[in-house]
Automatic annotation (TrEMBL):
Coiled-coil boundaries: none
Keywords: NADP, Oxidoreductase
The protein's enzyme class: oxidoreductase
Pfam family, one: ADH_N
InterPro entries documented for this protein: ADH-like_C, ADH-like_N, ER, GroES-like_sf, NAD(P)-bd_dom_sf, QOR-like, Quin_OxRdtase/zeta-crystal_CS
EC code(s) of this entry: 1.6.5.5
GO cellular component, as recorded: cytosol
The name this protein goes by in its record: NADPH2:quinone reductase
Regions that span the bilayer: none
Residue ranges of every copy of the Enoyl reductase (ER) domain listed in the record: 11-322
GO MF annotation terms: mRNA 3'-UTR AU-rich region binding; NADPH binding; quinone reductase (NADPH) activity; zinc ion binding
Species the sequence originates in: Pseudoduganella violacea
Length: 327
């Protein structure tokens, strides 16, 4: 038997139950992995609350790292003992042991530990597509990144520095401001003390930024538009404050013929070649030390509900992980 988080209904953190589950042998095309670390991300909250629907009863989690312990029929790319990491569907990463399609898994370089891998896969692959594919940033660009001291934000701050991009980050406290600056943000704006759009205009000599990366959603959407230079792009890739309400397309024309996109990671890594290319880039910058993964919260798997409470109350910074075999 194995332990896992399961939920039979949507709602608050209390709907998550720590249960014994039976995990059968891997099916054809699958491998079984003993998970050593599991990533915690805001998308997990969306599934838990029902904002993003899933069949119930079910599990939670889309990211983890561990060791292959069994191989299903037809799998030739992996063997027992291989170190692997992943980010993606099927949902259910909050578990000690699980079966996954071999096509989802990536061989983990020896220089990258399990904790680091579990903390970086979803967030790091997200930053890769945001900065290299949704908009291909280049040296000299100036962008705004909301929630710059979060897990995605801290990776973005560092990767922007690698690319020679000026990143302006928004944060909610002076402690988080210092963290963002330490990780490569050129400027930070404390949204509890300063009007974001006005401060962005000051920092850019009135021009605005070419791209705004916004994972907050409802609370920041219009202000994000106000931060953009003409022909700028708003990349809305999350909704931690709630979904963006309907708006008139005339808002984009009035602010300078702006662009808006709502991407998700899954479309960018749907093809195996694209997934492998993104992973190589991520493993490269992490393995070289150019991007460091800040794991600032660790929880036992049994305490997943507390991890969600801390995440939703904005008490966290950097990445959070669950440890499935901690006593």
């Amino acid at each position: 038997m194995s332990k896992a988080i399961r939920m039979s209904r949507t709602g608050g953190p209390e709907v998550m139950e720590y249960l014994e589950v039976e995990v059968g042998p891997p099916a054809a095309g699958e491998v079984q992995i003993r998970q050593e670390a599991i990533g915690v991300n805001f998308i997990d909250v969306y599934f838990r609350t029902g904002l993003y629907p899933q069949p119930l009863p079910g599990g939670l989690g889309l990211e983890g790292a561990g060791v292959v312990v069994a191989v299903g029929e037809g799998v030739t790319t992996l063997k027992v003992g291989d170190r692997v990491a992943y980010a993606g569907h099927p949902i259910g990463a909050y578990a000690q042991l699980r079966n996954l399609p071999a096509a989802l898994l990536l061989a983990l370089p020896e220089k990258i530990g399990f904790d680091t891998a579990a903390a970086m896969m979803l967030q790091g692959l997200t930053v890769h597509y945001l900065m290299h594919r949704t908009v291909q940033l280049k040296a000299g660009d100036t962008v705004l990144f909301h929630a710059a001291a979060g897990g995605v934000g801290l990776i973005a701050c560092q990767w922007a520095r690698v690319l020679g991009v000026t990143l302006i980050g928004t944060v909610g406290s002076e402690e988080k401001a210092a963290l963002a600056i330490e990780n490569g943000a050129a400027h930070v704006i404390n949204y509890n003390r300063e009007p974001v759009a006005e401060r962005v205009r000051e920092l850019t000599d009135g021009r605005g930024v070419s791209v705004v990366y916004d994972s907050v959603g409802k609370d920041t959407f219009l202000a994000s538009l106000d931060c953009l230079a003409p022909l700028g792009m708003l990349v809305s890739f999350g909704n931690s404050s709630g979904p963006v309400p309907p708006f008139s397309l005339l808002e984009l024309a009035a602010r300078g013929s702006l662009f808006v996109t709502r991407p998700t990671l899954w479309h960018y890594v749907a093809e195996r070649a694209a997934l492998e290319a993104a992973a190589r880039a991520l493993f490269g910058v992490v393995g070289s030390g150019e991007v460091k993964i800040a794991i600032n919260q660790r929880y036992n798997l049994a305490d997943a509900a507390q991890a969600h409470r801390d995440l939703e109350s904005r008490q966290t910074s950097g990445s959070s992980i669950l440890l499935p075999h901690a006593s």
